[in-house]
Structure formats: structure tokens, C-alpha cells
Queue: 3 jobs
Job 1
Amino acid sequence: MNRQIVLSFGWFIILAVTIGACASAGYYKNDRFDNDPISYLVGEWEGTINAGESSLSTFRKLTIYPQSANSTLSAHYGIPGTRWQGPAQVYVETFDGKIGIRFRTGSGSRIDLWLARIGNDLILDGTFNTPSGVPYQFMLTKKRE
């Protein structure tokens, strides 16, 4: 009886891990982005910080302006409709067909994001790290070119 419960529990754990791995693997379509990174990044991005119980305002907007290819891009970042927005210097990194960006906010928070696709949508997904080092999940979706 005890052995049967242990085996049943073991199979349940294996099934749960397998389903979880399959579900997370299908969430992002991690295509390679072989063209100029600027062609994917230019535009308006909107999204939220998953701040949980924090009092942190979560909605954010990032606008990356059309410009010539460079490893540093001019952008505008912040909380729309507030004084908590302004210019941002966005650093672009590419690695094996993947595109990443990083920048600091006006308040000193560090943002690290990677370009990915969910269905037909382009997203920037990664972390928002407060000046004190507390990381939060952060995702932006491209709204327009």
C-alpha cells in the first residue's frame, strides 16, 4: 500500500514537471532575429511590471525612435501621464540571433529585456531591478511601429 502511494505520487510529480516544461516551452516562440535589431525595436512598447504586493506603479511605456543602426539608441521611457518619464539611452546587445536591451531609468532602476514573440506579437521580456536591487518580472508588448 505504501509503495503504491509513493509510486503514484512519483508519477504525478513527473507528469506535472513534464506538463510545466511543455507549457513554458510553448509560451515563447524564440525565433532568431537575423535582421537589423533596430527594425524590430523601433516603435512604441507598453507593458507592466509584475510587482506583486509592492506599491510600485506598474504600467510603463517605452518609445524607441527611428535612427541609424548603433549599439546605443535614443528612447523615451516612463509612466505615462506623470512626471516620472524622460529620455533613456538604450543599449542593444545581440547574441546568436537574439536581441537584448538594457537601460537605466531616471530613478536609477536597471532594466534588462530580451526580444521574443508570443504568437504574432513582439515582446520585450526580462527584469526591472530597483535601485536597491529588488528584481521584478517586466514585460512590454510592441503596440506600433
Job 2
Amino acid sequence: MKKYFFAVALVFAFRAEFIEASEVQVSGVRYETMFDYNTKTFEQVGSIKIRYINHDLSWGTRVFLLWGERCNGISHDWSNWKEELRPVDSYTWEITIHPGSAIVDHDGRNRCSNLEFAFMNSLNNNVSWDNGGASSMGFYSVPMPTEKTLGKVSDPSSWEVLPVSRKSSGYDY
């Protein structure tokens, strides 16, 4: 009986480590804008839609996004914080953001490679964080939209699904 209990407890403990309370879905589009009069070219910028699903959050929870960009290999500009996601379905929130930096500059060089973010959940003055769970300093990361999605923001068919990864620190690339 002890062996059976130990085996069940071990399996349950192992499974619990991999159960995640939240799901993050991200899509994005890249488009040309910001005409540079000196070079007579456009820089490419983008829009990114983040959908956050968390069945562990109570009704009435407010969800905020804290985000920054990884440009030229350096994380920066996490000052764009406390942007509130809007509820779109049960346990589901969504936001569309427009990173402030050019993804590709007028010389055709990639400037910003990734969007990094975490969620702050607030209910009745109680705050919890969802940073991807990779470490206490972790965050979610998605690559910026690629050139193949050069399209229009208003055309959902031109948006690409972006893979979400969980990072333990800024050195985890």
C-alpha cells in the first residue's frame, strides 16, 4: 500500500509542475509607415494582439500588460506599463499594442527582434503577477512579426500567429 501511495503522489507531483494556469495567444502584422524623407524609404512597424486566458482568475479581475521591446539585443523601454486588457470572453482578456520602435529601419536592418511582457492581475487591491513562470525575473517573449506578414492592420488574414516563449531572464536568448 505504501508503494502505491508513493507512486501516485510522485506522479501527481510531477504532473503539477507542468500544469499551467494561463494560456497566451499572440498574433501580429508588420506594415510600412514612418516615411524617412532623407532616404526616401519607409520604416516597418507593427501591431501585436495578445490574448490572455486564465481560468484561475475570479470574475471582476482586471488584467494589465507590462511590456518592453528587445532591440539590438538589449531589453529596454518597459515603461509602457499598466495598459489594461479588455475582457472579451469568460476568463479571456485581449489587447492590441503598437510597439513604438521600428522593427526594420530604413536601411533594411532589423532593430527590434522581440516583444517581452508580463501580466499584472488585480482584484480588490490584491495583485498577482503572471510572468511566464520561468523564474521570479521571468517574462513572456514573442518575435516581432516577419516580413512575410507585410500587410494591413485592418486585414486579419495578413496577421501571423507568433510563437510565445517563456524566458527566465534577459540573458535567456
Job 3
Amino acid sequence: MMEYKHLGLISIIFVWCALLLLITKWRGNNALTISRHASSTKQAYMIFGIAISFSIVLYHIFLTNWFIPNYKLSSEFEILVNTSNIFLLLTLLIPDSDSIFRKIHRFTAHSFAFSLLFVVMYLVLWVDVSFLTKVIGIFAICVMIAIWILFYFVKSSRRNILIYQFLYIFSFQILILSATYF
């Protein structure tokens, strides 16, 4: 079981390498979402899609073979996290392009982000994690809710959507790393 523990970290490093490549090689601006950066060229879409798909597989192996058994998490948590991963995969498979697929893409992207918030809440409220992890989790919940509020109620904040997406993802990932290593 211990051999799977570090797959979460490897998965997270892989995600950030893919994101860094995406935003440096296919430059846009902070008003473009991660998805819009990824769909800017066919090459960007393919490289990012493959990298994130690989990361999701590593993350899933980590969750099912170390994280869930280590914390003795319920089947409800497993369903929640699998639903989140399915929404993420659908978001990757359906490009954010100027077509009918844009609405579907946005629905799956928002559903992924919303389900991620519930994963964080579940970990903070119902799992016996360290005090530091609880504090990080509470901070993550506050950041994630603040981003939802900004996104939906402060239209001018969309100029920096890329930064907010990075913060949102980072908030989740730092909680997972804290729960794993502290």
C-alpha cells in the first residue's frame, strides 16, 4: 500500500508541469481559461489532454490504493471523487471551442469545479486528518467559495480567470498533499 502513497504527489507535479507548458508555449492572457489555452491549437489540445489524462490515472490509483484505504473513507466519498474525475475527463474530451460543444464543456467544467468543492468539504468535515490539514482545508474552502462568488457576481473578475483557476486547483491539491504527508 505504501508504494502508492507518492502517486498523488507525482500526479500533482505532472499537472503543474502540463499547466506550465500550456501557458508558456501557447500564450494567451489571464482572461483565457485553462481550457481556452488548451484548445488554442490542436497540438496544445493533444499534449494537454494526454498529460492530464495520465495524471488522472495516477491520481485515481493513488486514491483507490492508498488515500481511501488509509483514511477508511466511505463509498460515498469514492462516488463523489469518481464523479469529479468523470467531469474532469469529460471537460478534457470536449474542447472549449466556438461551437455547440462550448455549453457542454462549460457545464462539465463547472460541475467538476463544484464537485471538487464538495470533496474538500467532505475531507475537512468528516475525515480524521491532522489539525494542519483541517486548517488548510478550511482555507481551501474559503478560497474556493470566494472564487465562485467572484466568478458569478463580479463580472470584471473574469479578466483574471486563469489565476483563479490556478488558485482553485492549488487549494484542492495542497489539501490532498497535506492529508497525505502530515
